[in-house]
Amino acid sequence: MRRVYCDANATTPLLPEVMEVIRPYLMEDFGNASSIHLQGQRARKAVDGARETLATFFHCREAEVVFNSGGTEGDNTAIFGLVRAGDHLITTAIEHSAVLRAAERVAERGAEVTFVAPRANGLIDAETIRRAVRPQTRLGDSRRTLVSVMLANNETGVIEPVEEIGKVAAEAGAFFHIDAVQGAGKVAFDVRRFGCHLCSISAHKMHGLKGVGAMFVRRGTPLEPLIVGGSHERRQRAGTENVPGIVGLGKAVELAMESLADGTVERIAALRDRLEAGILRIAGTGVNGAGAPRVANTTNIRFEQVEGEALVIALDLKGVAVSGGSACHSGSTEPSHVLMAMGLDKHAARASLRFSLLRTATEEDVDQVLRVVPQAVEHLRALAPEVAGTLG
Amino acid sequence: MSGGVDSSTAAAILAHSGETVVGLTLHLWDQTRLAGKHGIPDAPKAGRCCSIDDVYDARRVAEDLGIPYYVVNQEERFERDVVRPFVDEYLAGRTPIPCSLCNNHIKFDQLLKTARSIGAEYIATGHYAVNEFDEKRGRWILKRPADLAKDQTYFLFGLTQEQLSRTLFPLGHMTKPEVREAARQHGLRLAEKPDSQEICFIPGGDYKQFLTAYLEEQGEQMPGTAGELVASDGEVIGRHEGISNFTVGQRKGLGVASPSPLYVLQIDPASHRVTVGADAELATRTLRARRLNWISVAELTAPMRVRVKIRHRHEPAWARLEPAGADECVATFDEPQRAVTPGQSAVFYDGDEVVGGGWIV
Question: Which residue of B lies nearest to A330 if distances are taken between CA atoms?
Answer without folding.
Answer: B71
